[in-house]
Write a structure and sequence with these properties.
Blueprint lengths: L1 E6 L5 E6 L2 E7 H5 L6 H4 L5 H16 L4 E7 L19 E6 L2 H10 L7 E6 L8 E8 L2 E8 L4 H6 L13 H4 L3 H9 L9 H9 L7 H12 L11 H29 L5 E4 L6 H11 L3 E2 L9 H10 L20 H7 L3 E2 L2 H10 L3 E4 L13 E5 L6 H10 L8 E5 L3 H4 L17 H4 L15 E3 L5 H14 L3 E6 L11 H10 L4 E4 L2 E3 L5
Parallel strand pairs: 1-4, 4-5, 6-9, 9-10, 12-17, 14-15
Antiparallel strand pairs: 1-2, 2-3, 6-7, 7-8, 11-18, 12-13, 13-16, 14-16, 17-18
Helix pairs in contact: 4-12, 7-10, 8-10, 14-18
């Protein structure tokens, strides 16, 4: 019998399990081509049943599943007078319906994507029906015990500064900015310096608990104490803006340590798992790994898109890790592949030819297999190019991505090569850490080296992604280094794409040079 899990707020997702195997995790943004989409924020009420039916129909056509034993859920709309029964209970054919906890599901998602028998799990973000900052002790594969829970919100205070810094594109509403500002602030803060006079007041801001969501009132207090003018009409510029971002990052880290350090020290001999939206903060992740000299795991889906898979994994309680890296949706128009191959004269991929083109400066889009589950492209929905070409970062932005100037791009290399190019040991499979680039490679790999000499490295093995591994091997033979720039296959403001037609649209309408669809290589645009 199959089971299904629904998470319905922003970054909504649906996970499907059958006989102990996770078949797919469907991120709603990929279906709707609307970044961070959720049933509540982005859909008017009468369209939600249609979307649910569409998803159920997709699952039936793809996996042959029509009914479910249990439907696990979170953050779905209730019907007035229904005593808490979810709206989708009328639409999802299941025998049982189970309401689940937010941070516990984060914890299960992280733990069951590892082989750990024990772990300390820290889940923190800007929301939840069971706290905002929770710490768990996974005592064994069947028992995740809560150690600490509080409404300490580090997520919302972190992102709110994005509304007031001029280099960050201002979103139409703060609830939209809530989902995009944080990643941009991470890139910008490396240009600033921590202001020690501001720092205690920023830290106090992080620990303040506003009445409702009235952080604007708390910002006024912070403004009075620091002299910083937070005004959306006159947004902060240049060094003052960068220093605000850097000081906020430092306060964020200190707040994290203040809450978590006693528990990390109490359990010194077990790995640490970081989950929740704040676990996307690669600067903090890297410092935790270095500071505590401990194995640290961050799953590829630590934010709310991983809650559906967390509910399903907690149902399975697998004895060994379940790999969800490429458990996202299949290409939605996969039946059109051979049409495009014929119509656009696709040829079978030859790694030597592809590597030669990359080495010469081609920007190449890649769509292969099932998509990644999580916000970072890991080789199946990627744009690849040569980080050794001068100004490749600027060229990529100008020709395809249109991202802000201060945001870095990530490198990928084979696992066995990571210490050759980066000051790092072990895996960084999901771009969760940002070690420094070794000094001898910083100039050569300038397009993936951030202003602070760090890089959000992805490591890959042949078992994890044979196609990408083999490409890196061939590229090294031609270029002299086994590192590629790897960024998500999307355009600014859109989620990672989900169809060949969207990939072709980007290829044909941007200045992208080449395109790979499955095992076919498209080199010409004039056809």
């Amino acid at each position: 019998m199959a089971n299904i899990a629904f998470y319905g707020s922003h970054n909504a997702a649906v996970a499907v399990e059958q006989n102990g195997k996770v078949l797919t995790v469907i991120e709603i943004e990929r279906f709707l081509n609307t970044k961070n989409a959720g049933y509540g924020q982005y859909l008017i009420s009468y369209t939600r049943p249609k979307l649910i039916n569409y998803i159920l129909d997709y699952i039936y056509k793809t996996y042959g599943i029509k009914t479910y034993d249990t439907c696990y859920y979170q953050n779905t709309d209730t019907i007035e007078g229904s005593k808490g029964k979810v709206h989708y209970e009328r639409l999802i054919p299941a025998k049982n319906y189970v309401d689940c906890l937010h941070h516990y599901s984060h914890a299960a998602s992280g733990f069951y994507q590892t082989d750990y028998n024990k772990a300390l799990i820290i889940s923190f973000d800007g929301g939840g029906n069971d706290g905002y900052f929770n710490i768990y002790h996974a005592k064994d594969r069947n028992n995740i015990e809560i150690l600490f829970k509080d409404n300490i919100d580090l997520g919302f205070p972190y992102m709110i500064f994005g509304n007031y810094l001029n280099d960050i594109k201002m979103e139409p509403a703060l609830n939209i900015g809530n989902l995009v500002y944080s990643g941009k602030l991470m890139g910008l803060c490396s240009y600033g310096k921590v202001n020690k006079e501001w720092l205690p007041h920023f830290k106090e801001f992080y620990f303040s608990k506003p009445d409702g969501e009235n952080y604007l009132g708390l910002l006024e207090i912070l403004s009075e104490k620091t002299g910083i003018k937070f005004d959306v009409e006159k947004r902060l510029k240049d060094q003052e803006a960068y220093d605000v971002a850097a000081t906020s990052q430092e306060a964020f880290e200190q707040a994290f340590y203040q809450v978590s350090k006693p528990y990390i020290e109490k359990y010194p001999d077990i790995p640490i798992i970081l989950v929740g939206g704040c676990a996307l903060n690669i600067i903090l992740n890297s410092k935790v790994k270095k500071k505590f000299k401990r194995e640290v795991f961050v799953p590829p889906n630590p934010n709310d898109c991983g809650l559906a898979s967390g509910m399903i994994l907690d149902h399975i309680k697998p004895k060994k890790a379940i790999d969800l890296t490429y458990s996202g949706i299949e290409v939605l128009d996969k039946n059109m592949l051979m049409y495009h191959v014929e119509n656009k004269r696709g040829n079978e991929v030859d790694f030597k030819e592809l590597s030669k083109h990359l080495n010469e400066g081609s920007i190449v889009g890649v769509v292969r297999g099932q998509s990644e589950h999580g916000p970072r492209a890991l080789g199946n929905r990627s744009i690849l190019c040569n980080p050794g070409i001068e100004n490749m970062k600027d060229l990529l932005n100008k020709k395809v991505k249109n991202r802000e100037w201060y945001r870095p791009f990530a490198p990928v290399c084979r696992l066995e090569d990571v210490n050759k190019y980066f000051n790092f040991e072990g895996e960084s499979r999901f771009m969760s850490f940002c070690p420094t680039v070794k000094a001898k490679w910083r100039k050569k790999l300038s397009s993936i080296t951030h202003v602070d000499n760090t890089a959000r490295i992805q490591t890959v093995t042949k078992e994890q992604n044979e196609w990408l591994y083999n490409l890196l091997t061939e590229f090294e033979k031609i270029s002299g280094y086994g590192v590629l720039l790897n960024t998500s296959f999307n355009v600014n403001g859109k989620p990672i794409l989900s169809s060949y037609s969207d990939a072709l649209k980007v290829f044909l309408e941007s200045e992208m040079d080449k395109l790979v669809l499955e095992n076919y290589y498209f080199k010409w645009k004039h056809v």
